[in-house]
Amino acid sequence: RRAAPSRNIRPRPKSPLPTRNYTVSELKSFNGVDRENVLIGVKGDVYDVTSAKAFYGPGGAYNGMAGRDAS
Known about the structure:
This protein is largely without helices or strands. It is built from two helices and two strands; from the N terminus they run αββα.
């Protein structure tokens, strides 16, 4: 028997960026300043964290991770 879905959970929007590999120099530009999107790398995987730009974008607590491999 399936549990009823929670009404508080909303599906995350898909990233407008295509799935692809990024070089370190390409990733650097996705810091919320040079480009609108914010990406972070973790152990070789790249995540679009633009929806959490308040945390990862300019002035955010985790801005140091934006456009870099955070691992």
